[in-house]
User: Fold this.
Amino acid sequence: MANPIVQINVSVTNPPAPSKLLRTGAIASQGGTSLTPGTYSLLTQNSDLTPLLTAGKAIASAVWSGGVVTVTTTAPHGYPSAETIGLTVAGMTPAAYNGTFQATITGTSTFTYPLVSNPGTATVFGLVTDADVAELIAQVTTFFAQGKSASVYVLEFGPGVPADGVTALNTYINANPQFFFSYLVPREWDTEPTFKTFVGQFNTPSALVKFFVTTTISTYTNWTSLNSCVFAHVEAPGLPATEFTCAAAFYVTLNYNPSSAQQVSPLCFSFVYGVTPYPTVGNSALLTTLKAANINYIATAAEGGLTNTMLVWGHMLDGNPFNYWYTIAWAIINLDANIANEVINGSNNVLAPLYYNQPGITRLENRGAQTLRNGVSYGLILGQVIVVSMAQADFVAAINAGTYAGNAVINAIPFASYTSANPSDYSIGKYGGLSAALTPARGFEQIIFNLNVTNFVS
Assistant:
């Protein structure tokens, strides 16, 4: 038809692709896999790790002398020269040669390790592997003991001392910012001074990086309470070799998938599986001290009449719950994506273009408000969302006065006010008048109940 009665104009608005950053975590390996240093592989189940594990190096000879065993491998072992690293020797006869030792690398095919007693002449020669292999297996085993809903990456840095691993991680993050949200690190990193210095650069809300660290009763006091990016965990004494307790909490956090149908529950008191509770008998004072220092541990849920094992307390070292920082990261990621989406779609919408005017500012603010409403429905943000339009100084004053306490509020400075105060911003299409305040939702951690008992008097 030359003159149709109805003409349909179509404009397509594309939603932003959901960010997967908050569900993306890596287990840091130092020689546990055959992956090229600086590369990673996705694990969706235990068996995915097996083909990645470093193969043992064949031993050609082992000689004991003066409390030291000198080992020669049949081929170059690949361990960094002149460093002392954890190595596991197995398959030797006599069996006294076997075990995990801090070995000193003395050459391309040789290393030594301390052994007090002479085990005798070696008659059968076994294999040597990096001690990180056993730890990596324990990390992955404990991770997937929690379930199969979350996946995890293994990120290889190559064999070496903890300082080498920290340097490699620093290089990786600088080259790949915001690729992984969280990292589960080897136990040895707990006492590495350069690691403590390294994590200090991520103590800002916008850093979007968290570290899961295994510490000990004798070393946890070396950590500073300012570390908002560190989740520190103390393991129970006498763990089986197949357990890496901190991997359980690591799984819970990577299994968060916020939606109105799957709200984010508090990390504190989360059920965990395949891990050992810290003994409570005789340790009441110690556990109270750990809580005060924001050190996490595993306990039983017996107080609630449950046989489950659970995580206590779910805090970062700065004292805030993990969910507090998770909510902030979620808000940063989604506000950025959704408002940018509105701007880009608005430049491609012939029916409703987005212009730098009051309706355009209102449109951006409403998109931000909807993002915060999602956060409320996902169990992340407290209260309800309030939309206001006022001068920034007045908005800050209202926040400080507690006007919007217990709610989330988003403000957009009106077009006329903003452009009058910032005329050069309009000429370059820049608007800096959006701001918001929110309170992350959190769970109960301590209940005080007052019970008054009396004898009845007539």
Summary: The two ends are 97 Å apart (CA to CA). The chain has two domains: 21-50+134-321, 333-437. Residues 384 and 429 are 31 Å apart (CA to CA). The longest strand covers residues 57-65.
